[in-house]
Design a protein that fits this description.
Length: 342
């Protein structure tokens, strides 16, 4: 669908220099939007040519009022995905949303606010077709609760606000799933829980970007769940990953990924150890980051599954995913190879 409605629009993006941002900024520019990225003063990441940069602090609010002046659309993607504990998630996600909401309520020029939330805010579901937007939210992790609180903080914006809840997002530049791709390249993957499958919804970052563009238009409202149009299992996702890796790199040998269905108690121990070691290291290096696998991610992994019902956005807005899993995995692998990550 054409995004001509964005032509000439002043768009402010938080988190635009991150993983999804690198897939979102180019189509925004192609649509003719006048794009500005909000970054922290300490950030050294440069957005692509044609994108302006403004410095502000989402937690304290410093510089935020000036950053929002004259902006017509705000896309809020900045979030903490991996933290050491509740305080990390609440500070980076919920408190930042509260600060942003307080300034947005007085920003008269803003016509649309798009919050990129997460399926973690809705809660787990292992039954087809997945959890719908009108289901009572039941987050299973600190991350999920922080994203749900962020939604609540912005809800006073009323009809200006649109919330997107994507499932697992993958694609080039993603460091969250990088350990999974590296494991698959060695022929090994993990699915949580013994003697069971772990159903999941996934979405390529390109489709995520197209969904953001779509809800910037008039007619969008409320909460929308997203997926790639199919139901997957973690084991199937990793095997498809291995097959694509083999075609592009020759790894793993034979293109076969051995999926280890680890018992949940064993996963709990590994998550606790990883979190503990990282926490100990942070005592000596305050700038160290939480590991991708930690106790909060275990809270999500011990659930029966994470399926999203994305029928509403298709029914009401005509949006549908266009990136098949095989093509999306190829794009991800090629991106990792370009950056020497695999």
């Amino acid at each position: 669908m054409s995004a001509e409605y964005l032509s000439g629009k002043r768009v402010l993006v938080t988190g635009g220099t991150g993983f999804v941002g690198r897939h979102l900024l180019p189509p925004l520019l192609e649509a003719g939007a006048r794009v500005t990225c909000l970054t922290r003063a300490s950030s050294r990441v440069c957005p692509p040519e044609g994108v302006s940069v403004v410095r502000a602090d989402l937690r304290s609010g410093e510089g935020l009022k000036q950053a929002l002046e004259g902006q017509e659309i705000v896309i809020h993607m900045a979030a903490l995905l991996f933290g050491f504990g509740w305080q990390d998630y609440l500070g980076a996600n919920a408190r930042a949303a509260a600060t942003l909401a307080a300034v947005l309520e007085k920003a008269e020029a803003v016509q649309r606010v798009v919050l990129v939330s997460s399926l973690a805010a809705a809660g787990p579901c292992a039954v087809s077709p997945g959890i719908a937007e009108d289901a009572a939210p039941m987050p299973a992790s600190a991350y999920g609760w922080s994203k749900l609180l962020a939604e609540q903080m912005l809800r006073p914006l009323g009809e200006k606000l649109v919330i997107l809840r994507p499932p697992i997002i993958y694609g080039s530049g993603d460091r969250g799933l990088l350990p999974v791709f590296r494991g698959a390249a060695r022929g090994v993957a993990v699915s949580p829980g013994a003697f069971r499958e772990f159903p999941v919804s996934v979405l390529h970052a390109g489709d995520m970007a197209r969904a953001v563009l779509r809800v910037c238009a008039a007619g969008a409202g409320g909460v929308y769940h997203l997926n790639d149009g199919r139901e997957h299992t973690m084991s199937g996702f990793c095997r498809a990953m291995g097959s694509k890796l083999y075609r592009l790199t020759g790894r793993p040998a034979g293109g076969v990924v051995r999926v280890l269905r680890l018992p949940l108690p064993a996963l709990a121990v590994t998550a606790a150890v990883a979190t503990g070691l990282a926490g100990f290291a942070s005592c000596f290096c305050p700038f160290s980051r939480a590991p991708n696998w930690n106790t909060d991610k275990y809270r999500e992994a011990r659930q029966p599954g994470w399926l999203a019902d994305a029928s509403r956005i298709g029914r009401e807005l005509g949006w549908k995913p266009v990136v098949p899993l095989a093509d999306g995995l190829a794009e991800a692998v090629e991106g990792y190879l370009r950056e020497n990550m695999l």
